[in-house]
Amino acid sequence: MNLKSLNFKRFNLKNLQPQRLPPNTLPIWRDLVKDLRLCLVLLIIAAVIGLLSHALWPCLVIALVLFIGLQFRAFYQIYYWIRFQPEQNPPELSGVLGEILYLLYRYQRQEKQAKTELINTIARAQTSISALQDAVVLIDSKQHLEWWNPAAEQVLGLKAVDVQRPVLNIIRDPEFAHYFENLHDYPNGIKLDSWVKPQHFIQCEVTPFGDHEFLLLAYDITHLHRLEQMRKDFVANVSHELRTPLTVISGYLEMLGEQQDVSARWQRAFKQMQQQTRRMNALVNDLLLLSRLENEELTNKDQVIHMASLLNELFDDAQAYNSDYGHTLNLHIESHCNLLGSKLEIASAFSNLITNAIKYTPKGGVIHIGWSSDQEHGYFYVEDNGIGIEAYHIPRLTERFYRVDSARSRDSGGTGLGLAIVKHVLAQHEGYLDIQSKIGQGTTFKAVFAQSRLVE
């Protein structure tokens, strides 16, 4: 694509527009006086000649016609210059028309300078974009391909003949089509199997701009995908291999702890080892669950989950877990809608949110557990009146092993994977986790589900 194929309207011309002249009436009056003086001189000469020849009025009319003719001649010179000789210097004129011609010439030069700067800016931008290894594609308001850099031909397989063809006719991947038509549902873009290179993967991100136009960025993430897969396989394999030795260790510790001839000192040691073994076993189980969630190996997501029944079960479990904390638990079922998904996964995610609220709320707190819906979403929420969470922690809470307070998390026996599991469960159910918190007032964890997941 050459430079002319770019449409100037796509760029912000605000800083490149020619500067308008400030209002100043003095030059206008000065030039107007010149024109009036010329008209007056012609009239005086005509009057003198008219008085001498006893033809005053005809001479005055001739003077006015001559003055008007001179003005028309100046108008014609301006027209001829604009129409046929705009690149040359303007004709020399005096009076108001001369001042107008000067202003036009000055504005023309400023506009030419601005256009030159704009073209240079576009050229630099195009050169820079062309040097990128990532694909950059401009899509017009009709969703037609308008321009792309050379990398797009390697990453997306675009060809010169694809100019002005609909983007969805060129990139025919159904996942990309759904993404392009529902951009607001994919804030981080979408990962796709490459249709250009087998066993490669690309990340696509579409950003709307201008007048219903789009910028498509695409880049090869095969290396990152393989590293991520290696990490998942490593975690899954190590976690699986740890289960057997942990089971053996736990069994022997339990057997030794029940021996009557063991001293109290060793019984305390065995009890502590059992506690740590159970904690390690919980960590391994969470890692395995998270690994299966990432690989989408669990049950299908189209079961009808009866939310009232599920929440009552979770509430009973929470009451039992709460016996050591003394919180006041309240259950609010404000919607009759049920949820489509995997009951096992949803129960695990909701249970994580509830137990987190119980564990991290100071004793004697108040915790609200609820289910509600509106015309667009379904909401499961857990609200506590605990100490709250600093705002800078919130974006990272769903990261693996991220802890707001490491010492407190160790005391509570948490694995640091609970919210990561919740995030993955919700993502697989067309949902997301919304966290609102204020220091000293408490925290609300809200699982938000799309309307398509709700059933009566």
UniProtKB/TrEMBL annotation:
CDD domains: HisKA. One of its GO terms (biological process) is cellular response to phosphate starvation. It catalyses: ATP + protein L-histidine = ADP + protein N-phospho-L-histidine. SUPFAM superfamilies: ATPase domain of HSP90 chaperone/DNA topoisomerase II/histidine kinase, Homodimeric domain of signal transducing histidine kinase, PYP-like sensor domain (PAS domain). It is found in: Cell membrane. Its EC number is 2.7.13.3. GO terms for molecular function: ATP binding; phosphoprotein phosphatase activity; phosphorelay sensor kinase activity. Residues 237-453 form the Histidine kinase domain. One of its GO terms (cellular component) is plasma membrane. The keyword Cell membrane applies. Keywords: ATP-binding, Cell membrane, Kinase, Membrane, Nucleotide-binding, Phosphate transport, Phosphoprotein, Transferase, Transmembrane, Transmembrane helix, Transport, Two-component regulatory system. Gene3D superfamilies: 1.10.287.130, Histidine kinase-like ATPase, C-terminal domain, PAS domain. The keyword Plastid does not apply. The chain crosses the membrane at residues 38-56. Residues 121-163 form the PAS domain. Member of the two-component regulatory system PhoR/PhoB involved in the phosphate regulon genes expression. PhoR may function as a membrane-associated protein kinase that phosphorylates PhoB in response to environmental signals. This is Phosphate regulon sensor protein PhoR. It comes from Alkanindiges illinoisensis. The lineage of its organism: Bacteria, Pseudomonadati, Pseudomonadota, Gammaproteobacteria, Moraxellales. The gene is phoR.
